[in-house]
Amino acid sequence: MTISLPDLPYSKEALAPNLSAGTLDFHHGKHHKAYVDNANKLLADTDLVNESLETIIVKTAGDAAKTGIFNNVAQVWNHSFYWQCMMPNGGGPATGAIASKIQSTWGSFEKFAEEFKNAGLTQFGSGWAWLVLEKDQLKIVKTANADNPLVHGQKPLLTVDVWEHAYYLDYQNRRADYLNTFVDKLINWNFVNSLLG
């Protein structure tokens, strides 16, 4: 099975001015594609070549001999998931079933948003902030580099990419501004709700 680069779920221009077409072209067309290409090269002639991305991630996590496979395959999965987490005219307070789960866990959407953005802001270096389900409990976690909640027994519901290439063209070193914009104007709550079922 060859891993392929998924199409963006919207046009490259659709998230502007919050994320520019240039950022999406660079991030999806260069970075995400490089992970796909590297993953396919590393998986060729291995016993993992016909496995799903999720299976490869779980089977290679923590295996020093398979670090390259894990890093590239997990980054393919993480990025494919990240694109789904955004939509044009998105963001703002949660809607649907996730809204009541956030309310019961954090007491308010504002408290959730504060903690989610803080997770992204305090992730040192490259990585991700996530909203996950763990044993039916919502949690906010952060992971470094390519690490992924799937290997920690958690179900990802939402992620924001805090690698610099995700925001640098538009926000330079202003990660906090990028995170504010992500929460206020980009989150696809419909996608998050689709994962709760």
Low-confidence stretches: none
CATH architectural group of the largest domain: 3-Layer(bab) Sandwich
Q: How many structurally independent domains? A: 2
Q: Please name the CATH topology of the largest domain.
A: minor pseudopilin epsh fold
Q: Quickly give the structural class.
A: mainly alpha
Number of strands: 3
CATH class assignment of the largest domain: Alpha Beta
Envelope shape: globular
The percent range for strand residues is 5-15%
Number of helices: 8
Helix content: 40-55%
Biggest sheet strand line-up: 2-1-3
Largest sheet composition: 3 strands, antiparallel
**Helix-strand string:** HHHHHEEEHHH
Which homologous superfamily in CATH is the superfamily of the largest domain?
Answer: Iron/manganese superoxide dismutase, C-terminal domain
The end-to-end distance, rounded to whole angstroms, is 28 Å
Q: Measured on Cα atoms, how large is the radius of gyration?
A: 16 Å
User: Mean of the pLDDT scores?
Assistant: 96
